[in-house]
Automatic annotation (TrEMBL):
Keyword vocabulary terms for this entry: Membrane, Transmembrane, Transmembrane helix
Keyword NADP: no
Name listed for the protein in its UniProt record: DUF7144 domain-containing protein
Domain of life (superkingdom): Bacteria
Record-annotated membrane-spanning stretches: 27-52, 72-90, 95-115, 121-144
Length: 145
């Protein structure tokens, strides 16, 4: 018995809707949370490598944004840890985590853009991951409900 009058489910309702299962809402939140954990780990690793050895990265000369590589490493490390920690809260469906996730993914996109002269491929991968995080968090129903 499904708990609905007459034993039938309302039209358009999925079996997982309303019980925290693997419904459409949760799919996008799981996707965004997984990408946040993955993207956070990638940022942590790039931050550690920038902090550990400055000679690993070769900056492009005459780049408009010339920043200290160790400073960027700390920014990536801290931002990566925060993004990584917010990922599981997004999976649990916390509204505050979705809002924080959107803000963090936006900050991460800016940091990855500024990271382009040091590791172009890695920065582009992080930009793509962050764009998918923003898309998944905005696509999942329930943010404006």
């Amino acid at each position: 018995m499904t708990g609905h009058v007459g034993g039938a489910r309302p039209r358009g309702a999925s079996p997982a809707a309303g019980r925290g299962g693997f419904g459409a809402r949760n799919v996008w939140l799981y996707f965004a949370g997984f990408l946040m954990v993955f993207g956070g780990l990638m940022m942590v690793f790039s931050g550690i490598s920038a902090i550990a050895r400055d000679d690993v990265f070769i900056p492009t000369p005459h780049y408009a944004y010339a920043f200290d590589l160790t400073g960027w490493g700390w920014i990536h490390l801290v931002l990566g840890v925060v993004v990584f920690c917010a990922g599981p809260a997004v999976v649990r469906g916390a509204l505050w985590a979705r809002v924080v996730g959107l803000a963090l993914a936006g900050l991460s996109m800016v940091a990855s853009f500024m990271w382009l002269p040091y590791t172009p491929f890695w920065a582009l991968v992080l930009l793509a991951v962050d764009a998918l995080i923003v898309w998944a968090l905005c696509t999942a129903p329930g943010l404006a409900d």
